[in-house]
Amino acid sequence: MHAMQVNSGREAVLLGAELPRPEPGEGELLVRVRAAGVTPTELLWYPTTHAKDGTPRKGAVPGHEFSGVVVGLGKHTIGFDVGQDVYGMNDWFADGATAEFCVTQPQSIAPKPVTLTHEAAATVPIGALTAWQGLFERAKIQPGERLLVHGGAGAVGLFAVQLARLHGAHVAATASSGNLKLVAELGADEVIDYKTSRFEQETQKVDVVFDTVGGETLERSWQMLNPSGRLVTVAAGTASHRAKDAFFIVEPNQAQLVEVAKLLDAGSLKAFVGAIVPLEEAAAAYGGAVPGKRGLGKLAVSIRG
After folding, report:
1. d(CA 4, CA 99)
2. Choice among 96-105, 126-135, 151-160, 238-247 with the minimum mean pLDDT
């Protein structure tokens, strides 16, 4: 199969490769990938450079969110049929979906939203599940509570704003000036230009902070919390002990993917695709070198054949 692999040099870049088509093991299934979402920082993540046992890993295939078609079932695999359109994730330590085929598990995928193209569906799983798990599992946000989202126009923030508003929260969000209108249209009651304003001076204290930025923005956010307030962050490299406690990494979840798909198909939730590139241009997508004007949302690698 055609695939893109992370090279083993000093700088992480993607190179084209011809790899054996994977075979699903017991309880697994094989997906013919139609599109994969791009998370550029993934090339430097620990699961990309190391195996689960801590040994160095070479030639990893990135792209752990995807949309495609089930083409093979391992022994004792149930819940999906060959020929079914699906979307979801696979294990961070497994080879990803920037390839013609990938292996995953039933609990990590769900039927693809019928109203979305494969390219649009491939940009959803990580962002939507991160927002869902941060809001509802970690922060346990309640209707009527006040929320501050840092990075409201980002791949996670876009979904956090929408899901929180659907849940009945009052949403404030930071974004750049060019994205303020869209973030408001997605449901933010307050939008703050982080380049020209300090959020501490633009909004009241909140019950929940959802941080996707980290650094100084994260540290300044603690003062924004009410006495019973909660902060969650997905920004890696957090320094303080309390920030480390607030940090979490998204996990695949079939039930949540099913609910997200329902919201997308109902038009209650919107997905955004920044740009679509073919497999042979995946290196440019990961390297931030895609030409032309990009929209909001993740880049998608289209894999047609």
Report:
1. 6
2. 238-247
Class for the domain spanning 2-124+271-302: alpha beta
Over residues 204-212, the mean pLDDT reads 97
Residues 129/256, Cβ–Cβ less than 8 Å: yes
The pLDDT score that the predictor gives to residue 13 is: 87
pTM greater than 0.85 (yes/no): yes
**What is the arrangement of strands in the sheet containing 170-175, beginning at the earlier edge strand?**
190-193, 170-175, 146-150, 206-211, 225-233
Separation between Cα atoms, residue 184 and residue 171, nearest integer Å: 9
Parse the chain into domains and list their residue ranges.
Answer: 2-124+271-302, 126-246
String of b and e for 125-150 (b: at least 16 CB within 10 Å)? bbbbbbbbbbbeebbebeeebbbbbb
Domain 126-246 belongs to what architecture?
3-Layer(aba) Sandwich (3.40)
What is 239-290 written as a DSSP string? -SHHHHHHB------HHHHHHHHHHHHHTSS---EEEEEEGGGHHHHHTT--
At 219-261, the pLDDT tens digits run: 999 999 999 999 999 997 766 788 889 999 999 999 999 999 9
